[in-house]
């Protein structure tokens, strides 16, 4: 199951992601995190013991006849009396790439007179090959998708390579020669594969890319590549996407000290000012004030986090009347007079709110836009030009409101027969909208009327089943060179990527808009001294593109072993 997805713009990922190594400082941090979890579990155990008496203690007592064998410590490593550290079979090799191997001949038998095993260190060639496999190019996009299989959840980090050289059916241009791969004759088509993954502690509900390094300085030099993840737990985890094989997040928003946790168990407050107390339903990173992250929760609050200290800067408790706040998105227009202070939210109070977080009084900081028939808001999105916004409801309806006027919706569309699970507006085409529903397996693409204040609803261009199961997430690419690329995930297995412009019906419906986009892409590429691929795509012979990620070698080996 793919429950959430988002893109990473080009140029932010490290070219050579680092292999995670456990330093003393990191080990101390992990120990502190583990101790908090252990202390919380112990507090819960103590609470149980207070009510159940000595029942639990009697269950864990060791039989007197077996005490002398100390079986509860049977698997523990011996401890060095001088250093106090565990003695392992191969001390000092925990942070190396050493591997454990057998000595065999060509027939797979043991070599005569040889020991059974030996240690090998990777050669320079092997290290170079591994480094090349992990390399991320400036023209690559990362795609983030949260996946759950057999009750275990992951964050999958994909790489999408749009290719190099002239697209199929197009001619080479002089600027193509500035591409190092093209200059070396390595012309290639597009490719999608899983780069690495990270294990998550709970079922993920939302993922948001961050360009800001937590606990870093609040200035323009602080550029990072991180993912914030919301789950059924009230904490928000932040992971470094440029670090491979990492086991613990770089920061946890809303984590609390043990003593506070004990008090919380007794008080059981519904809302707290410094953290969430229920599932985190949405996340939105402020692109202008990059140290600010907004989160909404089933506890009915909206939190504004200051990532310089990873603490709540402000808690909005009554914007949606204490009901679930399901979705959020910052208004990120740099030319907007609000200067990054406008936040769009939707909740289960059948309302959308546009809030100016600079206003101190919570009662007067928001404009409210009501949906009909007491429908609950599942997702909200700004239009590409930010003049309007869209809201999807649990009844399968999509509403369009004029953001400048607190009024009734401009139009209402019954898009699906079940609750809207995903609603995406294309960043580069102001009249392209995509919807999906949690009870349906199709993604629908809509064309809006060109007039911003038009009361006419959109027309459906196509409805497509991407074999992803019931649709849970869809997101458009953030870069102009891949403006039509959409990733789709759902209750089935696998993430699909569809180049919407590769479809003839879509190209016909958005012919004028696509032409202007290609012209703009060509001009931007020429100014940067390179060639544009999207400007030369989508000829009459262009084949529709729907991709699924290549499977890694490790996955194939695991399947062979199972067979």
TrEMBL record:
Any coiled-coil regions, as ranges: none
Keywords: Phosphoprotein, Repeat, WD repeat
Signal peptide: none
Stored Gene3D superfamilies: YVTN repeat-like/Quinoprotein amine dehydrogenase
GO CC term, one of those recorded: nucleus
Top-level taxon of origin: Eukaryota
InterPro entries documented for this protein: PWP1, WD40/YVTN_repeat-like_dom_sf, WD40_repeat_CS, WD40_repeat_dom_sf, WD40_rpt
SMART domains attached to this UniProt entry: WD40
GO biological process: rRNA processing
Name recorded for this polypeptide: Uncharacterized protein
Organism field: Ogataea polymorpha
């Amino acid at each position: 199951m793919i429950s959430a997805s988002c893109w990473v713009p080009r140029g932010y990922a490290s070219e050579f992601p680092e292999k995670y190594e456990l330093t003393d400082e990191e080990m101390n941090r992990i120990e502190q995190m583990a101790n908090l979890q252990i202390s919380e579990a112990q507090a819960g155990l103590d609470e149980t013991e207070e009510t159940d008496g000595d029942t639990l203690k009697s269950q864990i007592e060791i039989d007197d006849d077996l005490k002398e064998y100390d079986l509860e410590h049977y698997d523990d490593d011996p401890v060095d009396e001088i250093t106090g550290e565990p003695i392992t079979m191969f001390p000092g090799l925990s942070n190396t790439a050493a591997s454990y191997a057998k000595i065999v001949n060509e027939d797979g038998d043991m070599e005569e007179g040889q020991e059974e095993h030996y240690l090998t260190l990777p050669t320079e060639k092997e290290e170079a090959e591994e480094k090349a496999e992990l390399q991320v190019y400036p023209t690559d996009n990362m795609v983030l998708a949260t996946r759950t299989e057999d009750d275990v959840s992951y964050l999958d980090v994909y790489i999408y390579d749009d290719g190099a050289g002239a697209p199929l059916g197009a001619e080479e241009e002089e600027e193509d020669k500035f591409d190092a791969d093209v200059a070396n004759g390595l012309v290639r088509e597009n490719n999608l594969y899983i780069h690495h993954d990270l294990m998550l502690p709970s079922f993920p509900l939302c993922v948001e890319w961050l360009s800001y390094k937590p606990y870093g300085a609040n200035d323009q030099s602080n550029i990072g590549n991180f993912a914030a993840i919301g789950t059924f737990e009230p904490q928000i985890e932040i992971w470094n996407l440029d670090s491979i094989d990492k086991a613990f997040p770089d920061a946890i928003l809303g984590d609390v000290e043990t003593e506070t946790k004990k008090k919380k168990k007794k008080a059981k407050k519904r809302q707290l000012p410094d953290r969430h107390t229920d599932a985190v339903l949405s996340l939105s990173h402020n692109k202008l004030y990059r140290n600010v992250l907004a989160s909404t929760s089933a506890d009915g609050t909206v939190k504004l986090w200051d990532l310089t200290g990873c603490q709540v800067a402000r808690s909005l408790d009554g914007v949606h009347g204490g009901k679930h706040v399901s979705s959020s998105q910052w208004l990120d227009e740099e030319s907007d007079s609000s200067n990054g202070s406008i936040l769009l939210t939707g909740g289960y109070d059948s309302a959308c709110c546009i809030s100016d977080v600079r206003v101190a009084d919570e009662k007067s900081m928001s404009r409210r836009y009501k949906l009909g028939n007491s429908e609950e808001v599942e997702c909200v999105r700004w239009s590409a030009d930010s003049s309007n916004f869209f809201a999807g409801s649990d009844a399968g309806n999509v509403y369009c409101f004029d953001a400048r006027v607190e009024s009734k919706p401009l139009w209402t569309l019954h898009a699906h027969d079940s609750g809207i699970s995903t609603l995406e507006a294309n960043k580069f085409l102001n009249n392209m909208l995509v919807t999906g529903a949690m009870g349906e397996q199709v993604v629908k693409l809509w064309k809006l009327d060109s007039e911003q204040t038009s009361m006419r609803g959109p027309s459906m261009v196509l409805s497509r089943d991407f074999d992803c199961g019931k649709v849970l997430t869809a997101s458009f690419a953030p870069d102009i060179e891949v403006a039509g690329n959409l990733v789709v995930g759902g209750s089935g297995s696998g993430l699909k990527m569809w180049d919407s412009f590769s479809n003839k019906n879509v190209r016909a419906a958005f012919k004028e808009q696509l032409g202007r986009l290609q012209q703009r892409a060509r001009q931007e590429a020429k100014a940067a001294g390179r060639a544009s691929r999207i400007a030369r795509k989508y000829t009459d012979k262009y084949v529709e593109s729907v991709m699924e990620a290549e499977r890694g070698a490790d996955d194939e080996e695991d399947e062979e072993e199972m067979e």
